Amino acid sequence: METGFWQSLPRPIFGLSPMDGVTDAAYRFVVAKYGKPHIIMTEFTAAEGIRAGAERLLVDFLYDPIERPIAAQLFGSDPDAFRIASAVSAALGFDGIDINMGCPAKNIADRGAGASLILDPPRAKAIIRSTREGIRQWAEGASLLEIGVPENIAQAVEVRRASLGLSSGDRRILPVSVKTRVGVTDIVIEEWVRHLLEEEPAAITIHGRTLKQLYTGLADWDAIARAAAIIHTTDTLALGNGDVQSLEDAEERVKQYGVDGILVGRATYGNPWLFTGYEASFEEKMAVALEHAHYLDKVMEGKAFIRMRKHLMDYTKGFEGARELRQRLMKITTLTEVEEILLH
Predict the structure, then answer these.
(1) Of 17, 26, 159, which is closest to residue 93 (Cα–Cα)?
(2) In this structure, what are the phi and psi dihedrals at residue 96, rounded to the nearest 5 degrees?
């Protein structure tokens, strides 16, 4: 088992959970700067898309060194696509690779990816093995083209490597982890986690809901605890995820449910300080909201800037008298509009 950075992390481990459409490069940068979680993961990226040469997906893999240790999260259903996408991730200098086996979205699950892999343990285990194979091929000196990476992706990776200051000899074996759920329709986490442990992942993060629940109801932390007890008969780390509201809440759940750490997602919305326990003032939140908008505009080059609306709503949530401000921010489409509102 390659544990990489996982074994050197402080205990308990508190990390930023990957969230599709949320944990882009700008969001991660702000959380890393003001909260500095122990581990950060990218939003999930389609392994099959990387194999098909979809260069636009590489924006998901933008990161700043301040985010380290950072893992690239991949999703898909074709094991060989994971071999190629994991080699790309390794070449981009990530510290680890996390495999998404927990996304409940219908368009993902219907393709045999995400949480639907819980129903297909042989495929799930093949994906873990193929991910390791791609990492190994890169670490042992194969070029991306030799591994089967499309030429346009390989060229873009070389440009990115140069910007990150990565040398030709910077090749290493990365740890592989898995993020999953307690089941599809029923809770089967004890049986499911035993399948995953056969492949010796460095860590398994368990979200306490089934695919059927999506994000409704409450996360079943008792099920997470039962799985953690099984995981702890091995060298794999067990992390929990779901409904954690604060750093204090995360600390209490570690003690109560026996996990090695927690990944926190939605509670970080508008609160990149969560991992420090710091309560920011309205003025501090507005300053960071503006910084967030600037960073997003830079990395996205003006594209997808409309997603900033949601973040601005989160930064202004809960403040008395912010209703009019929120109404104006809800209509922004450009960085200039954000500046005009927040700076005046």
Answers:
(1) 159
(2) -170, 175
